[in-house]
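Running this now, will post back.
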Amino acid sequence: MSDAANIAFSGDLSARTEAAIRDVFDGRPRRFSAILFAGPAVVASIAYMDPGNFATNIQAGARYGYALLWVVVAANAIAMLFQALSAKLGIVTGRNLAEMCREHFPRPVVYTLWGVSEIAAMATDLAEFLGGAIGLSLLLHAPLLVGMAVTAVLTYGLLVGAGRGFRPMELAIGALVAAISLCYVVELFVAPVDWGSAALGSIAPRFPDAAALTVAVGIVGATVMPHAIYLHSGLTQNRAPARHDDDRRKLVRYSNREVIIALAIAGLVNMAMVITAASAFHAGHRDVAEIETAYSTLSPLLGAGAAGIFLVSLLCSGLSSSTVGTMAGQLIMQGFVGFKIPLVLRRLVTMVPAFVVVALGVNATNALVVSQVVLSLALPAPMIALVMFTRRRAIMGAYANTRLTDAAAIVATVAITAMNAILLAQTFGMNVPFLPSA
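Update: finished.
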């Protein structure tokens, strides 16, 4: 009898999934075997559909129409590459990226990376927590602080459920990803989309004005996220440990397929966000820059149904991404410094910036966009570390990056670092010659 049959009645969904994966390894394939391997990339993909994406994509579509769709496409391609590398690192080494940094870098570098990563984690949670709170406050017609309190309770409930094994959390996040995706499929049928302009905007790189760079960097920060790069290596390192190289090869192959599918869906959702905002707001409502305004404006433009669908997708995004963000924060702390704090305390610590923003009366959507820029500025650190580890044969063996993969990863890292440098120069009033005037 197979391992899966031996524990079929144990009631442990994660154990049954792992045993079923062992059956596939041992040459006893099951129907829909690929579904058993799906999970890590789906969980990581929620980071690419979080409320920060809503904020940056609404601004991109409302202000610039379809012109910045190419940024979404490029950022998603980079995301696929780096999530695949992160997953491969966890599968091959049995270590996550933060642990690898602790083992291979000098202490000052480790503590610096940890500090940068914690700032990124707080910026992440600011976006995700505020997004869920905005959605709940709109749904309940209550103050934002009430929405924040309800969001805190709901996300903590999801986090408690995560302690019961990897599979229930993967299925829960997968259901929320499906809900967000379905919402935007419906929105595309409701919105009057100019598909020709959308296609052109997806393939023709340009910045309509200097201010578009800030939005573009925000899109990159909302799409390729530091905590997702760290998290993916942790999700794969112990999920179904490889016993020998044949197992490892199968895991990497299935992981690459899952990354392509999961992040292709996330990329299409992001494009749908920009397209919907461009279709609904660009012609006569270019000043729509806030999630709350977008929600209230959708009703007269596209009908109450469209506004309601938008709200459902925002709620699913905020709750799921805030849960995953807290999981990533725990993994980052444990990996870099070797200890973790209670989940309640971790949740409280990462919520503090969001409560401070609301208490000070800062515009919530503007805070979301700024948080995405912070994420983009923090992004090169894990990207550089990941490239360094995955290209070394001493660490990865036969799974070290090919020359083409290595070149693509280095070019992507340099491009994002250059965009950040240009943004900083622009922020401090320096002239950037090749950008149009604001």
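Residues 43 and 173 are 6 Å apart (CA to CA). More later if anyone needs it.
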